[in-house]
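**Backbone shape codes:**
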Amino acid sequence: MGAELLVPEQARADDVVLAWEGEDVIAVRLPQLSESLGHILAAMERRHGKPLAELDRRAKQEAVRSLEARGAFSVRHGVETVASALGVSRFTIYNYLNRENAAKAE
């Protein structure tokens, strides 16, 4: 997902430092979700075996549900990025999200 491995001495406050038997051995710098969104979309395409824009409506709705659960729409331009990958409009993404939230409320 685009993480970077570092020696522990290079770790920043928001990095994850892993220790073995009490000694720091490696640091992991996790990417911001906005940087990871491209990786997530590419992984979804590999899993489906074709571009996301070629999926049927039901599969696109499932993709939007999965992406929402991963926080994809909380980042700047997340909706636009996903809409472009799915070959739909932003309005369609919002419709999928609204339908999902309405179904949860029932």
